[in-house]
């Protein structure tokens, strides 16, 4: 029998949702200050209006749903799923008011793309956008990368059991520190330290490549936020191609890789256990999949003679591959060049890299390395077990921060998420084909959306069908939350309608 | 007989002359036709290594690299990188951003699908640049409904805040 959620359950959900919305509103003060500094008065009011809308809706929810009840598991998951939808809608308000998007749906698309750290864009005339709006585009990637709930946990929610349930619901099943609020604050600490370092490095590179100091710092901060959070937005319409710089490309490659590593691994390395980098199952799997997919990409490109020399092949092939594999979506080629020049093999291996993603408890999307590693390790062990004598006792282990005994439920969970992702990629691909796009193009764009990558082969445009935009929005949302919260939300609604 | 031979010679010569003129004119006309960024991307293989004329608005900023500089010109569809000598930079006054409409420049140069000099970037190496339209400063007028909306929303927010305070007091009692 399915139990119908009672009023107190709904109140707890509304109460926490209200807090998260207020937290989101507070972050709008950053571009508000930026608009004031750069004397951009229309955007200044846009952010003030959006900030007030967030405060009103958040406070209204808190007022209506005031409760002392803590969240249960279902409630925590439902709050997370709804919070991400609310963030996408409310985060789209400054976009809509700026007038750079064709419709509110396009604004929500870009907002979800930002929060989910995807990087697909529908913005119009990006080269003339206000700095503060541009900053907001990148800031939502920074917020989304750490997690909308992590923001609220860090500043607004006390470290209750409900807080931990929300934290898990946001596709972060690993705590770095024993307390979930401390973990959230550690994630912010890591990100802000890297933000300062990364911005300075990118600013120096930008300055050396001929940019003014103001622009090099502004671009440095924006590009860092989008690269470290494996987002993929850039301040100019040409993306990273705008800079025409090898140094900029190498710097962003390093930042993208740092962003795609597990926060727990960052913590371990910070604690001077550097050996973990080479012994961890995730980093090993990551290294192997990068090598394998790059080999296939390079063969595909070399066979067609797409680039004249090895440096060209590295700068274009390796860059797009790392960008895809880490789930960033930075491009140094035009979207249509994938289709016209890259050929099927290179495009296919790039799609595989995008589908795999980075490490768990990082800012990337996709299936993720721990799951890939566990699935392959389980397969390897099964083969090994067949070869060994039947009476032999066999303990399966892998190293992830510490030695972990592999249990059946871990393998089952990894395989289930693996299959769910494959299904999500395929579903978007089929819907793309339904709208008349070629199979490989549709699969590429669908994988890019669902794995929160952001590389585009040209399908994502303001003129694409509205239904396909909605499909991609849902894919980005589901992909970022790794299914569970969304499934629980659906189950919650079903229980509400049919439960007793 | 001689008349016929002369006539035939005249016809052949005429055809040859016309073909030569036609070819020369078509080559000149082709070079003078402005190509769009979409054409450059879509027909990159075909246009690779050829001289093209491209025009667009200068966006971002001029990035100086020694004796040469990078310009990015946006024709409304995409922006294309232009590698140019610094001698053309005296033409440039405005680069497009939020507060500026950039100069509209026309570039004649050699197009590369994957430039061997610049890490396989799709770019144009400029041979000449001319200014088509000077850019300008853009002054954004404040949209009147925005301050009004902000005041109304502030009022609503204050009411809610008072409501929250009252409910807290009532609960304490």
Q: How large is the radius of gyration of chain A?
A: 22 Å
Principal-axis shape of chain B equals elongated
Total domains of chain B, how many?
A: 3
The amount of beta strand of chain B, in percent, is: 25-35%
Euclidean distance between termini CA atoms of chain A: 7 Å
SSE run of chain B: HEHHEEEEEEEH
Q: Poorly predicted ranges of chain B (pLDDT <50, ≥5 residues)?
A: none
Tell me the CATH topology of the largest domain in chain B.
OB fold (Dihydrolipoamide Acetyltransferase, E2P)
Specify the biggest β-sheet of chain B. 5 strands, mixed, barrel
SS content category of chain B: alpha+beta
Q: If you average the pLDDT of chain B, what whole number results? A: 88
Number of helices of chain A: 22
- Strand proportion of chain A, as a percent range, falls in under 5%
Total number of strands of chain A: 2
Shape descriptor of chain A:
globular
Portion of residues within helices of chain B: 25-40%
Task: Give a verbal description of the structure.
The complex is a heterodimer of chains A (500) and B (173). By secondary structure, chain A is mainly alpha-helical. Chain A is 69% helix and 2% strand. Chain A has helices at residues 7-27, 29-37, 41-65, 73-91, 93-98, 104-115, 131-146, 148-155, 161-169, 180-208, 213-228, 246-259, 263-270, 276-279, 281-304, 310-325, 335-356, 369-387, 408-434, 439-450, 466-481, 484-498; strands at 397-400, 402-405. A two-stranded antiparallel ribbon of chain A has the order 1-2. In chain A, helix 4 (73-91) crosses helix 9. Chain B is of the alpha+beta class and 173 residues long. Chain B has 3 domains: 1-32; 35-137, OB fold (Dihydrolipoamide Acetyltransferase, E2P) (Beta Barrel); 143-173. Helix content of chain B is 40%, strand content 32%. Chain B has a 5-stranded mixed beta barrel with strand order 2-3-4-7-6. Chain B has a two-stranded antiparallel ribbon with strand order 5-8. In chain B, a hairpin with a 2-residue loop joins strand 2 and strand 3 (68-74). The termini of chain B are far apart. Chains A and B meet through helix 3, helix 16 and helix 17 of A and strand 2, strand 3, strand 4 and helix 4 of B.
